[in-house]
Amino acid sequence: MKADRLLKALEEMGIDTITGVPDSTLKQFCDGLQNYQGNLKHYVPVNEGAAVGLAIGSYLADGKPACVYMQNSGIGNTVNPIASLANRDVYGVPILFIVGWRGEPGVKDEPQHVFQGRITCELFDVLTIPYSVIDKETTWEEMEEILEKAAEVLANGDQYAIIVKKGTFDKDVPFTWKNGNELNREEALAAILKDTQKDDLIVSTTGKISRELYEQSNSIYGNHDNIFMTVGGMGHASMIALGLAKKRTDRRVICVDGDGAALMHLGALAFIASQAPENYLHIIINNQAHESVGAMPTGCQKTDFSQLAKDAGYTWTRQVKNLDQLHDALRETVPKRGPVMIEVLVSLDSRADLGRPKESAKENKEAFMKDVERWSNY
């Protein structure tokens, strides 16, 4: 199925606003959306719940339903605004959801997607949102029937979901965008690892940042035992790191975050600052895009995280653009009382042969906790 054909059909349904957070399963759809020449207004907010809020506001403006797209892992972020605002028992706001299905039962996927994939359809059942599932075998005639059904549901002030299996959309002209930064992310991560101390604890965010740290740490040190990889739960790495730092005040805790993830729960910056963990180093790797799921720009490319952190109450912040600046900044943080932040501006690229952790998530968790315990005995 061609993405632009579906987008034209959405316009014909009366939808003029589409908003969401990109997903690798929906990459071709997202590429098509970025390249689309129609009249759809497109917004990429900080998280899926915010997308639902935007969709509600758009409907209130002119009575036209909006479309919200996301990965199924983002359903959790939408539950509150769906159940307490959009549902027919509250305001009755029509929304069409397009949801990429990671972790589909019977299809091999990464561990963080397995349970979420298993309960995806059940979640829509619980939310009383009717849905259809589409895949690469879905014909356009079948798609038209689904859209007709969805239009009837939307006309009654309810929501409808289209759950999309991997490979549904045809590969077309990919959307390409560059941010103008020169520093390679993996080189920056290797430099960070080389400048850490042996008893530092690292909490890394979702996606390619954790994958690159995993490979670089194994290459440099022969293991990755001091790294907790937040493989799911996008946006929560900084609070995981805070919980760790508050209990292990004898260790420096380094959160290696991403810009897209940090934006998802930006209020964490203010809370971390208010808690004043002296052993907390927050590093935000900023490429201004959701690169791990297709490289769509975040929609907040002008955000200056170092300034935000300073305004929130971090004791020291720095923005860097090259390895020399990064090395100097890392060296400066060592004697400082946290929380401190380094924002690293990096280019938008990664290796085609980038691997994934060979161990299970539980095995990596256990190795990390053993590292925490081992150093506590010194």
3D structure, described in words:
- The chain is α/β, with parallel strands linked by helices and 378 residues long.
- It folds into two domains: 3-164, Thiamin diphosphate (ThDP)-binding fold, Pyr/PP domains (Rossmann fold, 3-Layer(aba) Sandwich); 185-376, Thiamin diphosphate (ThDP)-binding fold, Pyr/PP domains (Rossmann fold).
- The chain is built from 14 helices and 14 strands.
- It has helices at residues 3-12, 27-35, 48-62, 75-86, 111-126, 140-155, 185-195, 208-221, 237-247, 259-264, 267-275, 305-312, 323-333, 361-376, and strands at residues 17-20, 41-43, 66-71, 95-100, 131-134, 159-164, 201-204, 227-229, 253-258, 280-286, 289-290, 296-297, 316-320, 340-345.
- The chain has a six-stranded parallel beta sheet, with helices on both faces.
- Strand 7 (201-204), helix 8 (208-221) and strand 8 (227-229) form a beta-alpha-beta unit.
- Helix 7 (185-195) crosses helix 8 (208-221) and helix 7 runs parallel beside helix 13 (323-333).
- It is elongated and about 60 Å long.
- The N and C termini lie far apart (60 Å).
Break the fold down into its secondary structure elements and pairings.
Layout: H1 3-12, E1 17-20, H2 27-35, E2 41-43, H3 48-62, E3 66-71, H4 75-86, E4 95-100, H5 111-126, E5 131-134, H6 140-155, E6 159-164, H7 185-195, E7 201-204, H8 208-221, E8 227-229, H9 237-247, E9 253-258, H10 259-264, H11 267-275, E10 280-286, E11 289-290, E12 296-297, H12 305-312, E13 316-320, H13 323-333, E14 340-345, H14 361-376
Parallel strand pairs: 1-2, 1-3, 3-4, 4-6, 5-6, 7-8, 7-9, 9-10, 10-14, 13-14
Antiparallel strand pairs: 11-12
